[in-house]
Amino acid sequence: MTDGPEYQLHRTVVLVGMMGSGKSAIGRAMADRLHVPFVDSDAAIEAAAALSIAEIFERDGEAFFREREAEVLRRLLSGPPGIVSTGGGAFLAERNRAAISEMGVALWLDADLETLWDRVRHKDTRPLLRTPDPKGTLTAIYNERRPIYEHAGVRLQVARDATIEDTTQSALDALTSRPDIMEIT
Question: Which of 6, 88, 97, 148 lies at 20 to 30 Å from 23 by C-alpha?
Answer without folding.
Answer: 6
